[in-house]
Amino acid sequence: MEGIAPIYVNKAGVRPVTYQVGIDKDSLFGDIAGAGLTYDKGTDKLQVCLSRDTGNSLRFGADGCLYAPGGETPVPDVCARPIESLPAAPNVVGAAELAGLMGPYSSPYQVDYCLAEGYDIVHFHTCTTSDGVGVVTDYWDHIISAGRSSLYLTQDARQMTAATIQSTFNYAGDVDDPRTFTWGDDDVDLEKRKDRRGGWYGWLAQRYYQPLASDFLRKIDAKSVALLDCSPDPERAAYPESDAIIGPMQVVLDHCAQSWSMIGVRELTNATTVENQGITAIMMPLKPTTWGDATLPYPVADLTAAGVEWIALYSRHADSVFTAYKDAGLQVLMRGTSRQSEYTRVSALGIRGVLQFDPSYYRGPGTVPALGGRGYRMEFDPWEHRRMGTGQLSFHTDQQLVLASGGHVRGRTEDAEQGLVLPSGFGDGRDRAAVLCGWECPMANPTSYTITFDLKWDTLSASATAARMGLLFGAVTDADPYSWPQNDPVANPAKVPAITPNCYRVYQRQNGEIGIGRFAADGSYTLLATRTSPAVSAGVWNTYELVVTADQITFTRVRSDGTRHTVTAADTTWRGAYFWVEKTESTTGSTATGFTGRVRNVSYT
User: Fold this and answer.
1) Contact predicate 407/386, CB 8 Å
2) In this predicted model, what pLDDT tens digit does every residue of 212-228 receive, in sequence order?
3) What is the pLDDT of residue 365?
4) In angstroms, rounded to a whole number, what is the distance separating the alpha carbons of residues 76 and 260?
5) DSSP letters for 172-228
6) H or E stretch including 127?
7) Does an H or E element contain 117, and which?
8) Poorest-confidence range of 58-62, 172-176, 241-245?
9) In the CATH hierarchy, which fold is given to the domain comprising 83-148+210-371?
């Protein structure tokens, strides 16, 4: 027995066998789907094909039927920002995870923050509940955690109703460490449940009910492009992406938000399903394991054949990957490091723009007018308010890492005392571990300024010579200065390339020595001036003053009793506008000896 397409005969099995006769839907619908029809493999449905040509207004209505808008457009004429109105390359600035370095990934007030800052795209994670409703989730696994909410059991959102999720309080932090968040588990001690007062972004976070996707779309309301990211972590999510997109697609249709919404997917079949609903799909491939990865996450021809127009790639990808998609006509976004220096790469590539954890800092204080920077300098120490500062970046945030216990990503704040705590182990025992003081950068006059700051050793190191804190300053760009070891897969598994720090260093060693050093363009390091002073004492604040002129650098330690110790160096090598707080627990090649340090009141005039 043989079948003639689209009829097929399944002859598998041991004879005698019952043959199964069926219809190959791909062949059938490929033959009979004429103009205006398309077969969607993701939904297994034959449906109307909506043209993607510019100017087409036909769409699916909330009831799933065809809708041709007449009269007033559902998108407001005033202040509407549909996808087609996004800035030209390379100036699109989007907020990844609701600008995730500044607040909780799923909080309603972070949506308000993004809208107030005027970002072009607002990105957040979404999936589908058990009753088919689109819901906002915190992270890539689509799980609502009992470790940071009022739930009694950590569970996948797909196993809960919208009513259950919507009534769940999110505490925005961990019960035992209000400065950070670590994943909860199913074994939560309900007797210890209480309000959390912060997270990786600092203290003062409000509790909130877990939002539905419709809550966020009502807030955004075409004032920005909404990016509903449905792409799950394949190693952690329990349900497939094809399930995750059901609710978010419906909520976009319900709000007639097709012109100002994107749905992020990882699988091409699901991108086709999204596009067939008249919604713009954007591909969200996984982050490469190593920097400089030149592997294309998708064949270019597959994306263009499917009509996909947008893709978001991590900055770890090689330039050739960005160029391949851009040259094929796709609109490419970079999921980046939030550093202002990254704009140079984005511009050189000619891609459409970025998604950043700290987009306000990336835009700069109006220094690149096309980016729409509104200014961000603070007149106060952000740590005085137990919050993180704009542009408070580190070598960890460059890896798109935000969550870590104890403040190892970029320091932490504490309720008891003002200041940023740099814990023991910060920097993983390597040189030039530093936190960018981005809210003060770029300095307005880098050839003449004074920086003041306070330092304290909360605990002392076993090596009074190796342990030091201070500043890296005078850098021409804000590229992170961290000393990534090369050819060491354990210490540098992501193969982050080495960087030559073009800057100075001023430091206070635990043994009392203060000094000024200079990094050269060839990577060498020279001490320009040193002097002794009394060893630091645990728990005692010291004030420091750095004065830079066109031809001289002066660094002063002011002890708690007012005694001053000063070093001076005449050098003109670097006069850049960026500086960092640095903490070092070891010298090159030596064993790290941890200590906990604290810094506060960093300011310049």
Assistant:
1) no
2) 999 999 999 999 999 99
3) 87
4) 11
5) SSBTTBTT------S---GGG-----EETTEE-PPPEEPPBHHHHHHHHTTSSEEEE
6) strand 121-128
7) helix 108-117
8) 172-176
9) TIM Barrel (3.20.20)
For helices 319-327 and 342-349, the axis angle rounded to 10 degrees is 40
Exposed/middle/buried for residue 587 (C-beta within 10 Å: 0-12, 13-18, 19+): middle
417-604 CATH choice from 2.60.120.560, 3.40.50.720, 2.60.450.10, 3.40.50.150: 2.60.120.560
Place of tokens 């705590």: 421
Question: Do 204 and 415 meet the contact criterion of CB atoms below 8 Å apart?
Answer: no
Question: Which DSSP letter does residue 46 get?
Answer: E
Mean pLDDT of the chain: 88
Q: Among 306, 581, 256, which Cα is nearest to 427's?
A: 581
Give the mean model confidence (pLDDT) for residues 283-306: 97
- Per-position DSSP letters for 255-302, written without gaps between them: TT-GGGEEEEESSHHHHHHHHHTT-EEEE-PPPPSSTTB---SS-HHH
Helix (H) or strand (E) holding 449: strand 449-457
SS (H, E, C) 324-343: HHHHCCCEEEEECCCCCCHH
CA 464-465-466 angle, to 5 degrees, is 100
Single-letter amino acid, residue 438: G
Which uninterrupted H or E stretch holds 30? helix 25-32
Written as six digits, the tokens of 404 are: 């870590």
Task: Tell me, rounded to whole angstroms, the distance of Cα 386 from its chain centroid.
Answer: 21
DSSP state of 91: -
| Token pair listed for 559 | 């002890």
- Tell the burial category of 75 from Cβ atoms under 10 Å away from its Cβ (0-12, 13-18, 19+): middle
At 211, the amino acid letter reads P
Pair of tokens at residue 433 = 């571990």
Closest CA to 161 of 210, 201, 121, 198: 210
Exposed/middle/buried for residue 25 (C-beta within 10 Å: 0-12, 13-18, 19+) = middle
* pLDDT score at 138: 87
Q: What length does the chain have?
A: 605
End-to-end Cα, the chain, rounded Å: 88
Distances (CA, A) of 452 to 203, 246, 468, 505, 557: 25, 54, 17, 14, 10
Nearest CA to 250 out of 429, 380, 63 is that of 63
Residue type, 600: R
Is residue 73 over pLDDT 60? no
Alpha carbon distance 200, 386 (integer Å): 11
Domain ranges of the chain: 7-67, 83-148+210-371, 417-604
> Which of these, 432, 409, 431, lies nearest to 422 by C-alpha position?
409
pLDDT of residue 556: 99
